[in-house]
Amino acid sequence: MLLTITTTHIPATDLGYLLHKHPARVQTFALSFGQAHIFYPQVGPECCTAALLLDVDPIKIVRNRRGPAGNAFALQQYVNDRPYVASSFLSVAIAGVFGSALNGKCKDHPHLVDLRMPLQAKVIALPCRGGEPILRRLFEPLGYSLSVKRYTLDEQFSEWGDSDYFTVELQGTQRLSDLLAHLYVLVPVLDDDKHYWVGDEEVAKLLHYGESWLAHHPECELITERYLKHQRHLVNSTLMQLAEEDDPDPEETAARRDEEEAVVEISVGLHRQRLEAVLSALSECGAARVLDLGCGEGKLLSLLLQDGHFTEIVGMDVSHQRLKNAAARLRLDELPDRQRRRITLIQGSLLYRDKRLAGYDAAALTEVIEHLEPSRLDVFERVLFEFAHPASVIVTTPNREYNAQWPGLAAGGFRHRDHRFEWTRAEFQAWAQHVADRYNYTVRFMPIGADVPGVGAPTQMGVFNESDHS
Ligand code: SAH
Q: How far is residue 5 from each of residues 94, 141, 173, 223, 381, measured CA to CA in Å?
């Protein structure tokens, strides 16, 4: 497995200082699973390339292996791709031999650390589950342009098709420490496998090396999931921390963004109308035990508490901060016992199956779905409609067709900066009908706010009821 890093920054030999490895020498480092050799195939004032050649010893991998040996065929621990491909071994090697550079330290020339320079990284034999689209989705948002070559399984048998192995060249103007951190995190993510068990230590590494970029990466969830080997409890709490780290002052920003949305909507008292519409839809369904998913700061929860028909109320949100604000707004600490017992706030994500959500009469999601990544909607649908499967579901979301009516909203702009999409009525209805058909619900639609001919109302609501025959 070979990683090369090239710069055309002048003088290009600064790369040697940054990597703390002298360009004139070949150096070899022992690692628990083999050896890493560092050398410079090209050294000049205008272009300099450093190479890390990783020589993984298959016997050492087996000896060091912790935990069960996996469930594939008996020889798999000896016969596998690990010695030849870029995987989490590469990350360990990067941290081991380029540790100072990865952590943004440069003893002799500290000013180089923060310098963004033209860099090119080439990884030979990078296994990539999900192929080129995933490669692009992971690296392009970080500012790289990619050139990608996919290998066929066997050149002599072209009918066997393509393999999952690639040679990838990344090109971008980056700090070297950022490039190394991107590779450190994303190489094992692409591989979607790790040679060791993941635990809290891995969470700490992910948060540390992802610190400057992960929280606002559009594939943050995919990266976190794969990096933590899909271990839900770790992924969940990490995503929560990332959501908060994304924002230096989450309380202030959340409040400001909500305010922006509120200013846009204030002229029609839309927020109030929406809450009332949801509340009456919940009552019409005859719901007593209800979920408010993506409850935010608890405006709906506070109305639910005031209505004695709702005997059990659960507010869930992915953001710890918002839940704290909700607890304060609802003055949970001061509620008399009987009231207090009616309401629970839980932290959780709509993107993970959650036993705590099963068996309710109804779930409300007001202005939440548009905060989810469109590529994750199918996961959310299963979590809610298949696994939690409340008897009724009430969803509200902006109607994009109405946006041109808002004074102060830039053409084509969304109402809230965190929105990942805003749907037209036809789009929302098509989605909702598809979900209803698939999971055995019926759905009807209602406008909320002034219904303008040709564009509809500012908010659209879908009310799903479990079909009788389900
Ligand atoms: N329902 C509230 C808040 C809407 S803002 C209201 O109408 O006022 C959207 C909320 O969804 C935020 O509080 C956000 O933290 C939450 N959210 C975003 N992604 C989520 C996810 N994956 N799981 C649970 N909540 C999520």
A: 12, 20, 13, 23, 42
Q: Mention every residue, 6+ apart, whose C-beta is less than 8 A from residue 219.
A: 137, 138, 141
Go through 401-430 and write b for each residue having 16 or more CB atoms within 10 A of its CB, e for each that does not.
bbbebbeeeeeeebbbeebebbbbbebbee
| Residue 412 three-state SS | coil
DSSP string, 379-391: HHHIIIIIII--S
91: number of Cβ within 10 Å: 25
Alpha-carbon span 349 to 379, nearest angstrom: 11
**Closest C-alpha to 390, from 236, 286, 275, 279:** 286
The mean pLDDT of 64-82, rounded to a whole number, is 54
Q: How far apart are CA 367 and CA 211, in angstroms?
A: 29
415 Cα–ligand 1 center, Å: 15
Q: Which two tokens stand for residue 159?
A: 């009918």
Q: Which of 186, 193, 188, 200 is nearest to 233 (CA)?
A: 200
Ligand 1 pocket, residue 317 CB under 6 Å: yes
Task: Locate the ligand 1 atom nearest the alpha carbon of residue 274 and give its number.
Answer: 7
Task: Locate the DSSP E strands across 305-424.
Answer: 312-317, 343-347, 362-366, 392-398
Reference 165, options 137, 187, 143; nearest CA is 187
> How many angstroms is it from 368 CA to the middle of ligand 1?
5
DSSP lists the bridge partners of residue 168 as: 123, 148
pLDDT tens readout for residues 18-33: 999 999 999 999 888 7
Q: Answer yes or no: are the C-beta atoms of 351 and 219 closer than 8 Å.
A: no
pLDDT digits (tens, 9 = 90+) for 315-353: 999 888 889 899 999 999 999 999 999 999 998 899 888
User: CA angle 341-342-343, nearest 5°?
Assistant: 95
The residue whose C-alpha atom lies closest to atom 11 belonging to ligand 1 is 294
CA gap 136, 189 in Å, rounded: 13
Q: For strand 2-7 and strand 48-56, is the pairing parallel, antiparallel, or unpaired?
A: antiparallel
Please choose, from the candidates 33, 40, 34, 31, the residue with its C-alpha nearest in 3D space to the C-alpha of residue 4: 40
- Adjacency order of strands within the sheet including 145-152: 27-31, 34-43, 48-56, 2-7, 117-127, 162-174, 145-152
